[in-house]
Amino acid sequence: MVESAGSNPTILRRAFYNSRELRAGWRLLIFIGAVTALISAENFTVARLLPHADDTTLFLIREAVDFLILVFVTWIMGRMERRTIADYGLPWRKMFRTQFWQALCSASRPSRLY
Hints:
By secondary structure, this protein is mostly helical. It has helices spanning 11-16, 24-49, 55-81, 98-108.
């Protein structure tokens, strides 16, 4: 019995996609690759643009840009997967509500060592 080409997915298609979307492992690999590439480019660029900056300044700039890179790549992946950033646990509407301030206060207070 001969099946039509449209009804029998190729091996390559089955390796990358499940019945509905790109497989989770490939999505994770794309995410990690994009974040790694952008952070590497950011480190190179910051070192070139701010050659005489002190360690504290470099740390703060890199942390802020790293956060923006993570949000940007998450947004890109969400567009690829037809999801919102809220689906990844970053809801814009609930961003600065009670749990945010509770976590900020508990993270910023000094811990006690005995």
